[in-house]
Amino acid sequence: MSAPKLIQLDVSGYMNSAKYSDLEVRCNDTTYMVHRMVLCPQIKFFDKACSLGFMEATEGVIDLSHDNAAAVASMLEYAYTSTYTTPEVQTSSPVPKACAQMLHHVNVYAIASKYEITVLKAIAKNRTRTFLHDMGKADWFADIVREVYESTHTSDRGLRDMMVSIAGDNHSSIIQQEGNSPLRAMMAEIPDFASDCFVHMSKLYDKDVKKFETVYVCYICEDKYTANGGEVPLSGFVELVERSCVGC
């Protein structure tokens, strides 16, 4: 007997459709008509809520009003389409628009982490990285960091380490900012971020120190040598010290 063929169904057209719907997801004033066969196999939370005798299973309603509304919409969109769209933000200034879109990706990452949706979490992380590549100097970067540290668990290092790395890449401009600048003020407000930045920069400093080597230059014959007789480095962190060599 030949192996049964897999059936692939396009369920994107049933997103928020009453047709065949057997479950409602409510978030504040919005109600989504969804399908257990779509959500439960992909999201453990829905599977448990619908199969362990909870009130949600008997009433057919799951209330997610405690979650970010836009993130809930993106989570449900992902369940039906394997991706999510970035909401359009109506503004005349490109900076607030970029900030609002960036915050959305952070909120999607947070809800994906909360409900253990690995692929959605990876998508949101990648979009966050793409958006923030050159944004570490922007004043609103502080708002992004604040949202990351307030919406993710301490043990979830995905976006936290990304924020710390971006801050480290821009440390020269950050230390020149006034003490009341948005980023400096945020670091005082969120000590965990300041601590993470200190650890990150300390590790970078340790690596640089290990690369450091003293090279001696004979002021008579101009020959170069190291204290341990090793090969003279051509690049890296080198201190040149003049003194006479053994031969001279």
Automatic annotation (TrEMBL):
Give one Pfam family: BTB
InterPro entries assigned to the protein according to its UniProt record, in alphabetical order:
BTB/POZ_dom, SKP1/BTB/POZ_sf
Domain (BTB) spans 21-88
Q: Which PROSITE patterns match?
A: BTB
Give the SUPFAM superfamilies listed for this entry: POZ domain
Family annotation (PANTHER family): BTB DOMAIN-CONTAINING PROTEIN-RELATED, BTB_POZ DOMAIN PROTEIN
User: Under what name is this protein listed?
Assistant: BTB domain-containing protein
